Amino acid sequence: MFGGAAIVLAFEFRRATQDVDSLVTSGHGQVMQAAQEVGKELHLPPNWLNEQASIYLSKHRDFSLFKMYPSEGQFGLRVLLAKPEYVLAMKLLAFRLYAADVDDIKHLAVRLHRTSAEDLLSLLKHYYPNEQITPERVLQVTELARKLDAPSKS
């Protein structure tokens, strides 16, 4: 899992997400069937568990084990979460101006002690070395970093 769902599970600054961005690496049919059943039972939209954003995954897939269901050593579901650095790089690449995305970037940058434009752009280039970082994106990241490093008004 990555995106908002990974943030909800790993951090306390975000409490909800609209969907669960995922990549199912094995047992695809069974997982998607189970997701449909859960969705019906909980009255969730049909695409609550989706793989649409998986096209934006980096070649440096950086995930860590979150939980095993039913338990370790038994056949079942293994849930891996994208590491916070990876989620931050994905958010920087997309840099959607939705309030939740901008807040996610700010919170992750502060938590990871990556508040300078150089740190953020370096992280982005690490995970996405073949992506062309546009001047507009550099400007967005630089402006965000400036706000993160600004002294608080208290």
Uncertain segments are: none
Return the string of H and E elements.
HEHEEEHHHH
Q: Overall mean pLDDT score? A: 89
Number of helices: 6
Global outline? elongated
Q: What portion of residues belong to β-strands?
A: 5-15%
Count of extended strands: 4
- Overall tally of structural domains: 2
Q: Output the structural class.
A: mainly alpha
Query: Helical proportion?
Result: 40-55%
Give a short account of the largest sheet: 2 strands, parallel
The Cα radius of gyration reads: 17 Å
How far apart lie the N and C ends? Answer: 38 Å
Topology:
Blueprint: H1 4-10, E1 20-21, H2 28-42, E2 49-50, E3 63-69, E4 77-82, H3 84-94, H4 99-111, H5 117-127, H6 135-149
Parallel strand pairs: 1-2
Antiparallel strand pairs: 3-4
Give a short synopsis of this structure.
The chain has helices at residues 4-10, 28-42, 84-94, 99-111, 117-127, 135-149, and strands at 20-21, 49-50, 63-69, 77-82. The chain is mainly alpha-helical and 154 residues long.
Which features characterize this protein?
154 residues; single chain; 2 domains; 47% helix; two-stranded parallel sheet; mainly alpha; 4 strands; 11% strand; two-stranded antiparallel sheet
Molecular structure report:
The protein has 154 residues and is mostly helical. The protein has helices at residues 4-10, 28-42, 84-94, 99-111, 117-127, 135-149, and strands spanning 20-21, 49-50, 63-69, 77-82. It folds into 2 domains: 4-83, no CATH class; 85-149. The strands form 2 sheets. It has a two-stranded parallel ribbon with strand order 1-2. Strands 3-4 form a two-stranded antiparallel ribbon. Helix 2 (28-42) links the parallel strand 1 (20-21) and strand 2 (49-50). The longest helix is centred in the N-terminal third of the chain and has 15 residues, at 28-42. The chain is elongated and about 45 Å long. The model has no long low-confidence stretch (mean pLDDT 89).
